[in-house]
Design a protein that fits this description.
The complex is a heterodimer of chains A (131) and B (66). Helices cover 27% and strands 28% of the residues of chain A. Chain A is of the alpha+beta class and 131 residues long. In chain A, a hairpin with a 6-residue loop joins strand 5 and strand 6. The longest helix of chain A has 17 residues. The termini of chain A are far apart. The mean pLDDT of chain A is 93. With 66 residues, chain B is mainly alpha-helical. Chain B is elongated. Classes of the chains: A alpha+beta (131), B mainly alpha (66). At the A-B interface, helix 1, strand 4, strand 6, strand 7 and helix 3 of A face helix 3, strand 1 and helix 4 of B.
Chain lengths: 131, 66
């Protein structure tokens, strides 16, 4: 008997180049957390809507991630996070493309980027109004 | 015309079957572009329209970060 889903589950794709760049500056625990997260996604066929939160148009941290969604890794209160854009493809169903993975919060004295700052930078570099 | 503008023109006029090779050559020189625009281009994707986004995700909760 087919499993009945009680909520939408969105397929998730990663960009290996972005992930490689992210993992280079993260502790080994991030790689483990990401591996487990990807296993979960494969098992579930994607990410359930209840594990998503909307990003802010203008966040308290000065990031501007309107139109993006995020999740915590591991769910529900992990140290890491992933940020996604919703995408269409000519031959595939609507999906989420993960474009940043990293630490949600750093100590105040840290200069390291949070996952939201990385996401902001990658999104801002895509905007034609830049410069 | 700047060099960058010229590069865009050259890429725009390349036949489809040569775009991948041209991109690979550029990436070899510059490293991988991890902007969202480049990521989506690599995967042949486009962002959902704001209307479609709202239809699927408009009701999501927010938090006090990002």
């Amino acid at each position: 008997m087919a499993e009945v889903r009680s909520e939408p589950v969105f397929p998730v794709g990663f960009d290996e180049d972005a992930l490689t760049e992210d993992l280079e500056r993260l502790p080994a625990s991030a790689e483990n957390a990401l591996r487990e997260f990807r296993k979960e996604l494969r098992r579930e066929g994607g990410i359930p809507k209840s594990r998503l939160k909307a990003c802010h148009d203008e966040g308290q941290d000065a990031t501007m991630l309107g139109g993006c969604v995020k999740t915590y890794v591991p769910w529900p209160a992990g140290r890491f996070g992933a940020v996604f854009v919703a995408v269409t493809h000519p031959n595939r169903p609507m999906a989420l493309r993960a474009f940043a993975f990293g630490v949600r919060h750093h100590p105040q004295e840290s200069n390291a980027e949070t996952v939201y700052e990385v996401a902001h930078r990658r999104l801002a570099h895509s905007r034609p109004t830049r410069d | 015309m700047t060099t960058r503008e010229k590069a865009h023109v050259v890429l725009d006029h390349l036949p489809e079957d040569r775009v991948d090779a041209a991109l690979a050559a550029l990436e070899a020189v510059e490293g991988k572009d991890t902007s969202v625009e480049a990521i989506l281009a690599r995967h042949g994707e486009e962002r959902l329209s704001p209307e479609e986004f709202d239809r699927h995700f408009g009701s999501l909760p927010t938090d006090d970060e990002g």
